[in-house]
Amino acid sequence: MLIEVKNASHIYRQEQGYKALDNINLTISDHEFIGLVGHTGSGKSTLVQLFNGLIKPTEGQVIVDGIDITKDKVNLKEIRQKIGLVFQYPEHQLFEETIFNDVAFGPRNLALSEEEIYERVKEALDLVGLDFEYFKNRSPFNLSGGQQRKVAIAGVLAMKPEVLILDEPSAGLDPRGREQLIELLDYLHHQQGVTIILISHRMEEVARLSTRVLVMNQGRLVLDGPPEEVFSQVERLREIDLDLPEITEILWRLKEKGINVRTNIFTIPEAVNEIATELRRLKPC
Ligand code: ADP
Ligand code: MG
Q1: What is 3-224's CATH superfamily?
Q2: Which of 82, 133, 192, 249 is the one with CA 20 to 30 A from 53?
């Protein structure tokens, strides 16, 4: 599944006087894990809604598997099954009486057999770590926020999308919830070959998971590359006031103080190792 965005711009309302998206060019291939970052208002949510046709750009094209989905008469239902989108705070959209029915809502629109729907709901709840037997007949409204988010994500997974887009899925989760989410995304990407597009404010999450990082600023795509490359553009990131992953920031500060550590490191254990090695080299015991 290839997603191509060509010269796409988007204006919500003429009177706003600026473009929410400004001449975006981009190709996303199978099995990529894309981290999409940028300040609030930079256009991230607008951009991802182009990918499955929820938003039609005011100008430009969006081509999915060779089909221009901005044209009339395109089967958007099929596109939306293949490109699943988990909205920001997706739990606000839960509405069925039971968790089973909520997760089954999408698959039921695909005209699948009841057996197939049952299997899909079970599998999706297993994936997000909710016990099927325990949860299936309960109301989604009696769950914790973190569990509700899992149900909402399961609803999208039950569609078996080839591309999974998540708009700030870890916002408001506690550290354990965030870790479970990271494990799920890593599993879907590596074990099931799902292409993932993750919008996140947490740079360490993006750096750890992504094969490619996209940086948006004021409707423009300003950086696009592997995490090592993007997070080494320190000046550029500072200009647009974006953070580095915390641990990477520490390594840069050490480097600026003359301690010759590598800075293309995004995890704490690796950083500890690097700093220890360098200190040993400086001060052999
Ligand atoms: P992000 O997801 O990076 O925070 P958005 O894509 O939501 O950015 O927003 C990009 C710009 O478009 C912002 O200036 C925002 O205010 C504006 N915008 C977003 N949604 C709408 C809408 N439904 N109507 C009008 N303006 C919008
Ligand atoms: Mg947004």
Answers
A1: P-loop containing nucleotide triphosphate hydrolases (3.40.50.300)
A2: 192
